[in-house]
Specification:
By secondary structure, this protein is mainly α. The chain contains 16 helices and no strands. α3 packs across α5. The radius of gyration is 22 Å and the shape is elongated. The mean pLDDT is about 90.
């Protein structure tokens, strides 16, 4: 069995070299190319085993695939292979890999979506899930890779990310339904804070809509919205209060006059935190 596994890895390395030699063309038709990439992606998973005897070959493989940008050759309708590629690298990346290996992974993921008008919600979820707890703490390398990918490929992911948040916000009427099947719906507030820190320009359009969230009749939604605004205003990466003064003054600080004593109390606590940081 061990020899069989080693043989498949050697074949994958040879195929990566064959793709490099023929680049930017390919000696395979679409059906053959799909089989080739199924093997390549399955062998890329081995990069997770840093102590393995074949680790150097796995590094060789992903280096060749990254440098040559081999993944531009994926057949047009191979969404399942693209998803498998993302899942493979986010599951395999490790803090012990080092920046060189992580960069190769990032380059391959970038190649999978580069120039695309948009990505599926499934693919966006594959990336976004690495930004929230407990995965963020348990897999810091995957968290770092996800942040780097979102920064580099903001244009390609923008439509899927915006549709996700618009579908999740309680004050908006879903027009796309993109987030209906997403397992991350309940985490949209945490994800919005992360996205504002990673790529502020991507979510700036959405933030004014939070005025409606903190003004809704449901007390729980107003409480959650007030906490969300506080976390956004506490970010070091951007100054949302300066960019959207009405959101800060009217929607956030205005909650201290809320009809609910619970909301007023929470608003005062969060406002104190924000104002202390702003004046420090």
């Amino acid at each position: 069995m061990a020899e069989h596994v080693k043989f498949r890895l050697v074949v994958a390395c040879c195929l990566s070299d064959l793709l490099r030699i023929h680049a930017p063309d390919t000696p395979f038709d679409d059906n053959q190319l799909r089989d080739v990439f199924q093997l390549l992606v399955s062998q890329c998973a081995g990069i997770e085993d840093i102590q393995g005897a074949s680790y150097h070959r796995h590094v060789y493989l992903i280096e060749r695939l990254a440098v040559v940008k081999s993944f531009v050759l994926l057949p047009e309708m191979a969404d399942d292979l693209v998803l498998q590629t993302f899942e493979t690298f986010f599951d395999a990346v490790n803090v012990e890999h080092g920046m060189r290996v992580e960069k190769h992974m990032l380059d391959i993921l970038n190649t999978c979506v580069e120039g695309e008008e948009g990505v599926s919600q499934q693919l966006a979820d594959q990336v976004l899930q690495n930004l929230i707890e407990p995965r963020r703490s348990e897999r810091p390398a995957a968290y770092r890779l996800a942040r780097a990918f979102l920064q580099r490929c903001a244009n390609e992911l923008q439509r899927a990310v915006l549709s996700f948040f618009q579908d999740c916000m309680p004050s908006t009427i879903s027009v796309t339904g993109e987030a209906e099947g997403s397992e991350l719906r309940e985490d949209w507030r945490e994800l919005l804070v992360e996205m504002a820190a990673i790529s502020p320009d991507m979510v700036t359009y959405l933030l004014p809509q939070l005025e409606d969230v903190v003004a809704m009749e449901d007390e729980t939604i107003r409480l959650q919205g007030t906490e969300l605004l506080a976390n956004l205003f506490l970010l070091d990466e951007c100054n949302i209060a300066a960019q959207l003064p009405s959101l800060f003054t009217n929607s956030f600080l205005g909650r201290v006059n809320d009809v609910s004593s619970n909301v007023r109390l929470v608003a005062v606590e969060h406002a104190a935190r924000v104002l202390v940081k702003k004046t420090s």
